[in-house]
Structure formats: C-alpha cells, structure tokens
Amino acid sequence: MDKGRNALIKIPKDIVNFFKKQDFVIVSSLDKDGLIHNSCKGIVEIESNFVYLLDLYEANTYRNLQKRPVISITAVDSDRFEGYSLKGIATLVKKDVLEPRIAKLWDENITRRITQRIIKSIKGEKSHHGHPEASLPKPKYLIKMEVEKITYLAPLKNKKGG
Fold first, then answer.
1. Segments forming the whole domain that contains residue 149
2. Which of 13, 20, 37, 29 has the alpha carbon at shortest distance from 145?
3. Whole-number pLDDT of residue 143
4. What is the pTM of this model?
C-alpha cells in the first residue's frame, strides 16, 4: 500500500446489507487522462473489508485499473434517501484463478435477476421486454476491491443515530 494511503477498514454490517440489496453499483476508475470513468457492475460478494465484482469485458474499467488501481463504488436508494461510496484499491484477478465459489455466486446472481424480471413482467410492472442478463457473456476477470474509506452520501441528520 502506498505511503499516505488509508488503512483497510471493516465494512459495517448495515452497509454490507445495503450493498447486497443493490441490483448494480456505479464503479469509478481513472482513465489515461486522469478523468473519472463510470460503469455499472454487479457485486458478487462483499465481506469484511473486500468487495468482489465480476466484469464481463476487458475494456475501459480493466485498462484503467491496470494503470491506476484506485477505485470507488457507489450506490443509492432514493426511496430511503440513503447511499454510500466505498473507496479503495483494486486488484485484477483473471478468470482462470477465480475461486469456484465466486463463479457460482455470479451464476446465482444472474439467475436471481432474470427471475425478478420475469416476476415483474407477470405482475405487469415495467420491465425490459427481454431478458438481457441471459445474453451476457461469462466474466473474464474479477475486481477485488480493498476498502479504505466509506462515505455516507446523505446529509448527516438523516444518518441512523445521527
């Protein structure tokens, strides 16, 4: 870890649960010009001080993290007026060295999302006319994020206990 970097912190259980409920998060990395690049990704697992994201393409996020491993992930719940940004350092892990447990979690995540979309469709709720998750490619690598800082995105008066 670079001198001056924050020490890893344990993610509180309520924040872990918040992120696990999200369909996707916004992942931010820095591009070759030092500008912020955002992409949507699904969390596969979140535990202690690590977040695991599987990326389906070796494109912008991959190239950015190879050069500068600084990363943040952000999620908000507009109904609850709550949101968080987790900031830290990313490590790229190739598909061929992924733990089978992580690959299985990804498959379960896709199955859950397709099931939710079908249920919404049956109920007549707004949903995509197809099932785009079914045509997604298999992940090529894993982003393992070591969390160094948590930022609460709502005004402090709205924070639990605050």
1. 13-95+139-156
2. 29
3. 94
4. 0.75
